Amino acid sequence: MERLAMISRSGEGDSDNDTLKDYEVQQEFWEYIEEHINAYKVSNPFPPTLNDDSSSSLSSSQNETLTNILLMLRKLREGVLASHRVDSFAVGVYETSVSVAIYCQEDKALSSIFGRLVPELYDLHEDAELAAAFLYLLTTKPRGQKLSSPLRQRTPSRDDYTAVYLLHLLVTGYPSQRDFLLRSKVLLMRTSPHFQLVAATAANIRQGNYWALAQLVLHCLPTRNDLIQRMMVAILAKTRQRTWATLKVAYVQLQLDHRHWLCSALGFEKTTSVQKFMAERVKRGEVMEKEGKEPTWTIVKAAKGKT
After folding, report:
1. Could you point out which of 36, 51, 124, 209 has its C-alpha 20 to 30 Å from the C-alpha of 271?
2. pTM, whole model, 2 decimals?
3. For the chain, which ranges sit under pLDDT 50?
4. Domain 16-143+154-239 adopts which CATH fold?
């Protein structure tokens, strides 16, 4: 299966490379990919552990395995796209690709996947479902009975993945929100369960309210979609340097006490993450560690006239 060639981009319909245009071959290849994913799950956490500093929790071998799975999914997407397939199978392939790309932290691949999935593939899928429902009613309607038009059904997972896409735009575009603002007006429905979260996240970034942003991330409900939370953590990591710049100006000394205020201020869930972050600041000469009961750091203020 891994030896299946990529789809020919030459436009020649008779190419031997077009095997993956066949729906049966696509199904077989999908099952092959699922076997690899299930094998990975046997001995590895899946989804992978989410670190509160947004760093990857994957070992080199884990990352290599998931990256290979992502490459196979790319090959399958080529076939799905070339065959103009827009059914639930196609949607599932793209949504799985999104998940694996996020786990591998492959932002470039993620942008490419979303470029087809949101909103194009969802729209095409819903159009096709509506047309099929209408055709079914038309062919099964008893003679003389009035035909009532079927309602368009929104793909159940669409709101989740649209929110992930918009948060991804905040990550890749930071600090600019140009792409996010252009797309959010069209893509994010106010009836979406994620509308308030996405809107509040963008607003907090624009306003420089990093404390409020950290609270959105740290105090989430257990029911929050895992991919959305991963994007939120990635956004928080992007803003952390600005939070740190504010703390350096506002304080002479910082302490990691039992109330964990510094954890919340920097947007970390674990005190070990704070200590790792501050250790890096010590190396950079931005703070000096001070002896005491609680971990404490003294801010090294720049001399006047120096930056």
Report:
1. 209
2. 0.90
3. 8-14, 16, 307
4. 1.25.40
